[in-house]
Amino acid sequence: MALNIFDSHAHYDDAAFDPDREALLASLPGAGVCGVVSCGTDISTSRRNLELAHRYDYIWAAAGFHPEAADRISDDDFVRLRVLLADGRCVAVGEIGLDYHYEDGAPRTVQLSVLERQLILANELDMPVIFHDRDAHADTLEVLKQYRPKGVVHCFSGSVEMAREILDIGMYIGLGGAVTFKNARKPVEVARYVPEDRLLIETDCPYMTPVPMRGRRNDSGLIPYTAQRLAEIRGCTAQQVLDRTRDNAERLFL
User: Is the pTM of this model over 0.90?
Assistant: First the structure.
C-alpha cells in the first residue's frame, strides 16, 4: 500500500461527495492519505472546507475566491475572507487565479481586480496562495511576477518555459491526473523538468481522475496512479514521489 499521500488540492465540499462524504473521508487515512488541502472557491465553500478541516485532523482548508466567482464578490466578502484566513486550520489563500476559458465568464478586468486584492492580502498575512490558471498564461505570469507570492500553481498546464519562470519566483508546481492522460504532452515535459523539491501532487477531486480510473469520481485515494506515472517519467519509484511531495506540501502549507 502507498504511504505519505498528501493531496495538495481537493474540493471535498463538492456536491459529488454528498452521498458518502463522511464514509469516504473516514476511510482515506487507511488508504495511506496523510494530508489534504481542501480548497474553497467563495465564502460558502471556504466555510464548508474549514468545517471539514476541524472535523478531520489530516484535512486543512484553503479559503479564497475562484476567478469564476469574481463578479459575485463584495467588499463584505473580503472582510469575511480575513476571518476565515485567521483560523488555524486554514493554511492558504485559494483557490484564486485567472480563467479565460469561457466567453461568458467573469470579465477579465474583474478577475484581475479580485485576484490582486487576494495576492496583496496573502502577502500581508504571509500565507501561500493556491493559483488557478486556465488559458491565461500571459496574465498569470505578469501578475505573479508583480506580487511574487509564495504558493503553488495547481494543475499546471503551461510549458516548461513557463514552469521555469514560476519556479524562479519561488513557487511550486502542482501536477495531477492530467499527467496520466493519453494526449498529455506539456504535463509530461513539465513533470520531467520540475526539481524534486518544488513538485506537489494533487487530485483536484472530484475532477481530473487519473488513468485507468477515468470516468469515475476522483478522490485522494487514487493519487498512487498519478504518482506511478510521475515515477515513470522521473525515473524513480512511486513511493519516492509520494514521500517527496509530502515533504514539499508540509513545507509550503504547514
Answer: yes
